[in-house]
Amino acid sequence: MPMTEISELRVTLTVQDFDRAVAFYRDTMGLDQVADWSSDDGRVILLEAGRATLELFDEAQAANIDDVEAGGQVSGQVRLCFQVPDSDALADQLADAGGTRVAPAVDTPWGDRNARVQDPDGLQLTLFTPGEL
Question: 67 Cβ partners below 8 Å, 6+ apart?
């Protein structure tokens, strides 16, 4: 049994263009801003993205998911995944906001509708809309 109870998973992105990243994630993607700790030393905001999980893949599974979602291995060691109501529509909005569509959206073998987008700094995102249960 772990000695520490984890209450939050926080992912920190260091971005080249702060305003562009805020526009991409907060304004276009719709993540809620819950804090602004900016100071004369630098800029930082905290965006809420719902429940957090940590998904661990071995290299074979990562290659398999890349093949399903993007037609071949394209992601790096870290890829962010967001459950959204309409993965196709949000992928289009993010592409219009400076992101890059990595591949057309696909219906996965596990029943989700997944779209792969790269943010303006090159981080890969999977947008997934769960299928009917």
Answer: 73
Q: Are strands 79-83 and 100-107 parallel, antiparallel or unpaired?
A: unpaired
Element containing residue 18 per DSSP (H, E) = helix 18-22
Cα of 39 vs its chain's centroid, Å: 27
pLDDT in tens, 12-66: 999 999 999 999 999 999 999 999 999 999 999 999 999 999 899 999 999 999 9
Instruction: Please state the pTM of the whole predicted model.
Output: 0.87
DSSP conformational letter for 42? B
Residue 47: both structure tokens together = 């965006």
By CB atoms closer than 10 A (0-12, 13-18, 19+), residue 127 is buried
Question: Measured between alpha carbons, how far is 107 from 113 in angstroms, rounded to an integer?
Answer: 5
Residue boundaries of the structural domains of the chain: 18-129
CATH superfamily placement of domain 18-129: 2,3-Dihydroxybiphenyl 1,2-Dioxygenase, domain 1 (3.10.180.10)
Give the integer Cα–Cα distance in Å for 12 and 72: 27
Q: List 113's β-bridge partners, or say none.
A: 107, 129
Residues facing 79 on adjacent strands: 124
